[in-house]
Amino acid sequence: MFVRALFTVLLAVLAYATPHRRQEARVITSCTKPNTAALTFDDGPWVYLYDVSKALVAANATGTFFFNGNNYACIYDEDSVKRVQYAYQHGHQVASHTWSHADLTTLTWDQIHDEMWRVEQALQKIVGAYPAFMRPPYGNYNDLVLQASYIRGQVVAIWDFDSGDSVGATAAQSESSYDQLVARHPSTILALNHETYETTAHQVLPYAIQKLQAAGYKLVSLAECTGLPAYQSVGAPGVRDSTWHC
User: Fold this and answer.
1) Mean pLDDT throughout 151-178?
2) Does position 18 have pLDDT exceeding 60, yes or no?
3) For residues 156 and 141, what is the distance between their CA atoms, to the nearest angstrom?
4) Residue 80 and residue 152: Cα distance in Å, rounded?
C-alpha cells in the first residue's frame, strides 16, 4: 500500500538534488464547469462533519473535505477515523490539508514533504484513497511548495470565495457574504468554509445550500467542478495497527 508513498519520497530527494529548476504543481483558484459550486471544508475531521455531510446529502449535493492529520485531533483517533470514513462513504471528496496545519512557506524542503506525505498515508490507510488535491494551510504557498506538490502528483487548491468563518465572521455576516456572492452570480464558485465551527454547520451551510441551489448552481465536489481526478489511486483501506498514531 505504501510503495507509492515511498517512491514519491525518493523522487523528492532526487528532484531536490537536480540543479535545474523543478516543475511546479498546478494551482486552481476556481471551478471550470459553468453553473457549478464547490463547497469545501477545512481543518477536520471534526465533530460537525456528520451534520455537514447530512445537510449536503439531503440537498443532493457533494462536498469536499480537506483533512489535517493532527490539528484539532489526531486523524488516527477512533472517532476521527469514523468521520473520515463517513465522509468518503457518503460520496464526498477527501483531500489533504497537510499534517499539522503549519504554514508551508516557513518550512524546509524535507519538512514540506513530511507535512504532505503523512496525511496522504493516513488517508490511504483509513479509506484506501490517495488524494490528488492539497490545500496549503492559510492558502500560503511558494516555489518549494509547488515543486513538492508536483512531485507528489498534487493539484494545489485555493478558493475564490471565503465565508469568513475562520477569521471571526458571525453566522449573519457569512450569510450576508453568500447573499452578495449570489447577487454577483459568477459562472462558478469555489467556496472556503470550515467544518470546525458549529455555526457553519448548523446555520450558514443550510442557508448557503438553499441560496446557491435557488440561483441555479449545482453543488458538486472540487474534482467534478474542475474536471480533474479526485484521487491518484483508490484501493482497499488498511487495518489498524501500531502505526496508526500521531
Assistant:
1) 98
2) no
3) 9
4) 25
Kindly state the DSSP code that residue 49 receives in the 8-state scheme: H
Between CA 145 and CA 116 the distance in angstroms is 10
What are 192-229's pLDDT values in tens digits?
Answer: 999 999 999 999 999 999 999 999 999 999 999 999 99
Q: Which residues contact residue 153 at a Cβ distance below 8 angstroms, ignoring those fewer than 6 apart?
A: 8, 132, 232
Q: What angle (nearest 5°) sits at the alpha carbon of residue 127, between those of residues 90 and 9?
A: 140
Q: 3-state SS of the chain: helix, strand, coil percent to 5? A: 45, 20, 35
Taking the C-alpha atoms of residue 197 and residue 200, their distance in angstroms, rounded to an integer, is 5
User: What was the pLDDT predicted at 164?
Assistant: 98
Backbone angle region of 26, left / alpha / beta, with phi > 0 → left and psi within -120 to 50 → alpha? beta
Which residues are identified as catalytic?
42, 194
Q: Which residues pair with 234 in a beta bridge?
A: 129
Q: Domains for the chain: give ranges and CATH numbers.
A: 3-234 (3.20.20.370)
Q: Which residue is associated with the grid cell 465533530?
A: 47
Q: Which residue has the cell 471544508?
A: 41
Note the pLDDT tens digit of each residue in 43-99. Answer: 999 999 999 999 999 999 999 999 999 999 999 999 999 999 999 999 999 999 999
| Per-residue pLDDT, 20 | 53
Distance CA 203, CA 35 (A): 24
